[in-house]
Design a protein that fits this description.
The complex is a heterodimer. By secondary structure, chain A is mainly β. Chain A is built from no helices and 10 strands. In chain A, strands 1-3-8-7-6 form a 5-stranded antiparallel β-sheet, with no helix packed on it. Chain A has a 5-stranded mixed β-sheet with strand order 2-10-9-4-5, with no helix packed on it. The mean pLDDT of chain A is 92. Chain B is mostly beta strands. Chain B is globular and about 45 Å long. Chain B is built from no helices and 11 strands. Classes of the chains: A mainly beta, B mainly beta.
């Protein structure tokens, strides 16, 4: 079955450093992949979408890469700030019904001042 | 753009009562909306897909008679938890689907915390 895996352990980094979060997917090849941010007690917020034919996508301090050979997407936050602390979710579409998204547990990021 | 609102943001009710949650897409039309439930430390769990003007499609294991969904317009979907019980206490989140070139993005509401006493 389709599966995504993100860093299971929380990521703690120092303010100003670059945070790198990993999303691995198995058993299928999504045409695109989305990244969301979720704060405690809030709904996810859409950040970026990257298609399979795009190697890299940027938005301000965010950068996403998509390696279809490795079946992996990396999410980078440069010059991280404490306000970036949240859970980050990667969500590819479901191959059987691409209106649905596949959700994992995400990776919890804590940026320490 | 792509703002989705949800109301109420939290609700506390007695066991046996019904609770209605509204989800609105404020600046775009959404023919499809989704309803999720999320328990602490768990991933988003899709409950149902709400289609404007037609019946909702429920995920396996979700009782359609308990979780009534109505999608009467292109900007509004409602979820009614009927005869709520303590085990229905959870965080309910809706999303609205915006279509792009061969892609779909879901924009989420802020969520509704339901506590059933």
């Amino acid at each position: 079955s389709q599966k995504i895996e993100q860093n299971s352990e929380a990521l703690n980094i120092q303010e100003g450093k670059t945070a790198t979060l990993t999303c691995n997917y198995t058993n299928y090849s999504p045409a695109y992949l989305q990244w969301y941010r979720q704060d405690p007690g809030r709904g996810p917020v859409f950040l970026l979408l990257i298609r399979e034919n795009e190697k890299e996508k940027r938005k301000e301090r965010l950068k996403v890469t998509f390696d279809t050979t490795l079946k992996q997407s990396l999410f980078h936050i440069t010059a991280s700030q404490p306000a970036d602390s949240a859970t980050y979710l990667c969500a590819p579409p479901n191959a059987g019904n691409n209106r649905k998204l596949i959700w994992g547990l995400g990776t919890s990021l804590a940026v320490n001042p | 753009g792509a703002v989705v609102s949800q109301h109420p943001s939290w609700v506390i009710c007695k066991s046996g009562t019904s609770v209605k949650i509204e989800c609105r897409s404020l600046d775009f039309q959404a023919t499809t909306m989704f309803w999720y439930r999320q328990f602490p430390k768990q991933s988003l769990m899709l409950m149902a897909t709400s289609n404007e003007g037609s019946k909702a499609t429920y995920e396996q294991g979700v009782e359609k008679d308990k979780f009534l969904i109505n999608h009467a317009s292109l900007t509004l979907s409602t979820l009614t938890v009927t005869s709520a019980h303590p085990e229905d206490s959870s965080f309910y989140i809706c999303s609205a689907r915006a279509t792009g070139f061969m892609t779909d993005t879901q924009y989420f509401g802020p969520g509704t915390r339901l506590t059933v006493l």
